[in-house]
From TrEMBL:
Presence of keyword Coiled coil: yes
PANTHER family in UniProt: PUTATIVE TRANSPOSASE FOR IS117-RELATED (PTHR33055:SF3), TRANSPOSASE FOR INSERTION SEQUENCE ELEMENT IS1111A (PTHR33055)
InterPro entries in the record: Transp_IS110-like_N, Transpos_IS110, Transposase_20
Protein's recorded name: Transposase
Alphabetical GO biological process terms: DNA transposition
Coiled coil: 191-231
Species: Kandleria vitulina
Listed GO MF terms: DNA binding; transposase activity
UniProt keyword terms in alphabetical order: Coiled coil
Length: 371
């Protein structure tokens, strides 16, 4: 049986710190710091093999998930070099790291985790999913900018002592009110510039949504996205976000594992007879978690068990089993919401609980567990 050399890589934009560890002895074979170049990694691996005395030794490399995304993984895979991306939250880290931390020690720690198998690897989606994921995240960035410009407009008008008399903001009546305000020329110019930016961002986001609708019609996405849309609160954009960001639902053995991946399960700090539940872990994919929270906000509205025209339209043409499953899920979650609110549970906690269970129902649709 060939020995294995584990190469830990602490990667940054311009430099990589490398550390090679032998599985046979646990000794450090080589350490170095190089410029960000996969050719130099390949040379380092050959040198580590020579130092181990076994030129045919297997090599396993790894780096923490971070700024490089999957790019280095693909570069090394193209060279036939085995590579894994380590989830930082799952790695074992020495207590000394809190007082003494540098790139060399980080590379050593990554190599040690590889050798001890004390980590969980990040799932690497295929290239098509990555392209779609990046498009969705780009749209998310523009949504964040739109939210910020809304806040800036509201703050500007409040500083002028102007308050909108209606209830709902950013509807045609609210926009008409702002455009009709009589202000001093300088203030009017400022507000017009803000509104111009608001209109520009709104138009671009609508264009992005249209493009995403086209992507959702691809064969690889269409069936599951349309099934997810049977759930109240899930539209095409949120269905695509959840489906693409997760990529492969079969890697989760059960619904609880998926909700944990979304970071929606509560943390725990218990000892002896004391059981202390904390806030949610917020580990895993933040995009999915945010989307589920937003979907839960919509799902709990309305009368329990009553479907609106929009939901009926989305369910048209779908499998009866999927529709029944989605309706039962929504009714259960709405009842749970009202029950927890009646018990005076904080609404944010309630919405998070609804989002956590919604993730479980989504896992059921994606994996076919709808009986």
């Amino acid at each position: 049986m060939n020995s294995i050399i584990y190469v830990g890589m602490d990667v940054h934009k311009n430099t990589y710190s490398l550390c090679a560890v032998s599985d046979a002895t646990g000794e450090i074979l080589a350490e170095t710091k190089i410029t960000a170049d996969s050719d130099l990694i390949a040379k380092f691996i050959e040198n580590a093999r020579d130092l181990s005395g076994n030129p045919e030794a297997q090599v396993k490399t790894g780096y923490e998930a971070g700024c490089l995304g999957y790019s280095l993984y693909w570069e090394l895979a193209a060279r036939g070099i085995e590579c894994v991306i380590l989830a930082p939250s799952t790695m074992q880290k020495p207590a000394k790291n809190k007082v003494l931390k540098n790139d060399r020690r980080d590379a050593r720690n990554i190599a040690t985790n590889l050798a001890n198998n004390s980590y969980k690897s990040v799932y690497v989606p295929d290239h098509e999913d990555v392209k779609t994921k990046e498009y969705i995240r780009m749209m998310g960035c523009f949504k964040t900018q739109l939210k910020r410009i809304k806040q800036q407009i509201n703050a500007f008008l409040l500083r002028l002592g102007l308050r909108y008399p209606g209830n709902s903001r950013w509807i045609p009546a609210h926009l008409k009110w702002m455009n009709g305000l009589e202000l001093e020329p300088e203030f009017r110019e400022i507000l017009d510039e803000y509104l111009s930016e608001y209109d520009s961002l709104s138009e671009r986001i609508e264009r992005f949504k249209g493009r995403l609708e086209e992507m959702a019609q691809k064969e690889r996405y269409k069936e599951k996205v349309e099934q997810l849309r049977c759930l109240k609160g899930i539209d095409t954009a949120s269905a695509m976000t959840i489906h693409v960001e997760t990529s492969d639902f079969s890697r989760f053995p059960n619904a609880a594992a998926y909700s944990s991946y979304c970071g929606l399960t509560p943390a725990e700090n218990s000892s002896g007879e004391k059981n202390n539940r904390l806030n949610i872990t917020k580990m895993g994919n933040s995009m999915i978690r945010k989307t589920l929270i937003e979907a839960a906000q919509v799902l709990v509205r309305g009368t329990i068990g009553k479907k609106g025209k929009k939901v009926k339209a989305k369910q048209k043409g779908q499998d009866v089993k999927v529709i029944d499953y989605a309706d039962k899920a929504v009714e259960r979650l709405q009842k749970k919401y009202h029950h927890m609110i009646y018990r005076n549970v904080n609404r944010n906690i309630v919405i998070t609980a609804i989002a956590r269970e919604l993730a479980c129902f989504i896992w059921g649709i994606e994996t076919g567990h709808i009986s």
